[in-house]
Amino acid sequence: MASSSTVGKLSREEFRRQKDLDAARKAGTAPAALDEDGKPINPHIPQYISQVPWYLDTGAPTLKHQRRQDDGPETTSIDTWYNRGAKAGPAAKKYRKGACENCGAMTHKKQDCLERPRKKGAKFTNKDIQADELIQDVAMGYAAKRDRWNGYDVADHTQVYEEYAAIEAARQKKREEEIDNQTTTDLAAVRKVAKAGKKDVDPDFGSSDEEDDDEDKYADAADAVGQKLDAKTRITVRNLRIREDTAKYLVNLDPSSAYYDPKTRSMRDAPNQDIPAEDAKFAGDNFLRYSGDAPDVQQLQLFAWQAAARGNDVHLNANPTQGELLHTEFKKRKEELKDSSKVSILAKYGGEEYLETAPAELRQGQTENYVEYSRTGQVIKGRERVKVRSKYPEDVMVNNHTAVWGSWYDAGTSTWGYACCHSIIHVSYCSGKAGIDAAQASTAQALLASTAEPPEEETPKKVEQNYSKQRVGEGEVQLDKERLEDALRQERKRKKGDYDDERSGKKSKSGGGSHDVTEEELEAYRMTRRMTDDPMANYVDDEDV
Q1: CB 62, CB 4: distance < 8 Å
Q2: In this predicted model, what pLDDT tens digit does every residue of 207-264 receive, in sequence order?
């Protein structure tokens, strides 16, 4: 709706008419609503934008609440400030009624006067009457009222520079005069005077510039790093902090390294994970917390807390000696009780031989010992880690195999096998090189390659035929035994119906031609044909002999 919220609750009929009017305005059949300035209001503006808040509702449609409101009275610039010390013209010659009784100005009263209180005020003496102050009306805005530096004159800060420069010039001049007054040319005496002048420097106004200019004067008196040597007492005093110490957050500048907490100044993890904790300059706060006597102190504190919870009067900070003695006695009794219970259980049930376990290096296959290797794999530092072994037998060759099961993987069939013979059958007998050749020949690629190349046709041997006038099968015929056996096999296949004469098919494809029946084929036909006129062909003897 493009109209503002109306006062009161609309009835059902009024709400329906309002909805119809809004729909007509959106369709363009009804004129748009006008605001206070006579400007049309877009009917497609959402209701949450066009609706006026309850504290600005005037009962008429408007979009004034969406526009920028007036800032109120005009304010001056943030840089504008009172003109300090400005006077509003020449001073009066006589005291005026209502003026300040102390200085005679009309702009303030006696209790607000900033002049020095006079013994007799201007009201009674009519002398030295001050001019009226210039009253300025500076309308400050929100930011100007809350600006802590509003009205500050930056030119006032030059006085601080001038003061320090004057002090430094006077100190330098005094030092030069003292050095010039020395009658000796001994360098040690000059250094002594310069050192004495350095000690007389006021700490509040001291500067380090003169120390940089006279570095050569104090080079011989420089102490060792982190130490302060007193030549008279010969006592070396350790300073609180060495300047050459590297801060924790500067050890490793990688943002993804250990986290540094600036509030507590702690870095729990090691900044350089690739460097052993024993060799690193800083290995993290956790390394210091869990190394040395720190774990013992934690155990002692835990024992004190537990003892106090049970009602015992033990406090580690109030009486640390008592806590240490009680903790030592507690650990001793605990070990004795543990040993006695172990001995009693073993004496009753037995099984001591099962408690003898292998070393932790063999059981877990890992250790906390640091080992460093060279590029060739040789151990440079530390002891070499024991290799992890399986509970199953390893490196056991069976059935003439020279490789273990799983040493070869067939990517084509996604199976494991032996690398010596490429056999994928577990616990099979090794066939060696022949098995590898057979496996390669039986692959799908090898089979496809063999079928793609047609086999070479063998030229049939010319069979000597009987071209005499004598009929085939008559007379003395010499038969070849191998050809006869081949002919018998072919004849049996033909009678079974599974034989396809490939030779005749090939000849018909190649252009036709007749096949000459050989003596061997004729003899095979005679030997396999059934003699229908033989009276004994169907005889079956059922009697037992």
Answers
A1: yes
A2: 455 555 555 444 444 554 445 555 444 445 444 556 667 888 888 888 888 899 888 8
Whether pTM exceeds 0.85: no
Give the Cα separation of 219 and 442 in Å (integer).
Answer: 90
**Residue 416 DSSP SS3:** strand
Q: What is the helix, strand, coil percentage profile of the chain, to 5? A: 35, 5, 60
The C-alpha atoms of residue 288 and residue 267 are separated, in whole angstroms, by 11
> Please, are residues 140 and 146 in contact by the beta-carbon 8 Å criterion?
no
Question: Residue 262 in 3-state DSSP?
Answer: coil
Q: What residues contact residue 473 under an 8 Å CB cut-off, 6+ apart?
A: 519, 522, 523, 526
Q: Is 382 left (phi over 0), alpha (psi -120 to 50) or beta?
A: left
372's enclosing H/E stretch is strand 372-373
Q: What are the tens digits of pLDDT across the range 275-306? A: 888 788 888 888 877 777 888 888 889 999 99
CB-based contact 414:442 (threshold 8 Å): no
In sequence order, which residues have a C-beta less than 8 Å from that of residue 256 and are 6 or more positions away? Answer: none
Task: Report the C-alpha gap between 372 and 370 in whole angstroms.
Answer: 7
